[in-house]
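Box 3.1 A note on notation
Throughout this textbook, protein chains are presented in two layers. The first layer is the amino acid sequence; the second is a token string describing backbone geometry. Keep the layers aligned when reading.
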Amino acid sequence: MPIINDVLLFDEQLHGDGLTKAFSMTPQDVLIEIRESGLKGRGGAGFPTGTKWMLAAAAVSDKKFVVCNADEGEPGTFKDRVLLDEYPKLVFEGMLIAGDAIGAEKGILYLRGEYRYLVEKLEKYLEHMRAENKLGFNILNSGVCFDIEIRLGAGAYVCGEETALIESLEGYRGEARNRPPFPVDTGFMKYPTVVNNVETFASVSVIMSKGSKWFRQYGTSKSAGTKLVSISGDCHQPGVYEIPFGMTVEKILEMVGAQNTKAVQVGGASGYCVPKKEFNRTISYEDLSTGGSIIIFNETRDMLHVLKNFMEFFVEESCGQCTPCRIGNKKLLEGVEKIEHGDCSLSYSKELIELGRSMQVASKCGLGQSSPNPFISILTNFEDEIFSQR
């Protein structure tokens, strides 16, 4: 994994044993350390991890669960796969630390169905942890009991949303739940549940090893630490990079050897399409937030074709539960096809943009709330190119 700017968050050779340090602390002290680190959810939503854990810890229940969301379905994202393949220690230890902090005895890794080939390797690592008394009964003679099992998803994009993921875990169709109640109160099997992304759990292990102050020296005041990004598209050096929050799009393009870049899609298909005039914007929760996907398009790319590809994906992946998403995405795709055939006026495209904004407010879950993002940003930023060619 390429590392830049001497940021080495995920180099296991350069940090100690976060698990041992965490187990030498009280659960309350662990919660405070995670809160003080400023760690936010690395799946893209950016909810403060310490706050989420504290809410789950405060919930009164005889059972609690920790769920790792490894359903990496966002187009252009592959950094969680790298973490699970090369750094399973950090991920599983992060889950264990979470379990101890909130009082859970069971963890579940919800693994994307297409990553089935990783199951055997991950199961072997879990057995290795059990043999070292780092999973199971009376872990490290601390009195803590916690174990992890692996469950496979079935390829539904919507299951990247935490409540739809929980529905899938319970054996139901993957559909988002109404909230409240939230998973920290009523999650898996109606018990308090913490759901975090693969990268979030891996970061927890490192934070416990190095400390919250070390972690906060990277990034910005509102976006602490570093971010793993999956970079693909028109560049000479695609791959997974670890960057400090606050890095500009322009700097990233230089780093990966991109030339004649027209646009950068930040956040995958559901993200924002950044035009050249905005390449000074930064990767951060306060500016361009991303779960990890960065797709680069050079001057040869037809942005309407790019948009059509995205909208076809969302029409296919919508679970159909709520009207704004089920019907709205189809209407946006129809609009793209009308533009393609020269049958869409500029005024009608403006109406479709307003429809997209309504979907962002009215849709039930993150799929429908974010699927209009590429439609709005591409039509807004590349309006002249798109309509002058048709």
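The longest strand covers residues 144-152. The two ends are 42 Å apart (CA to CA).
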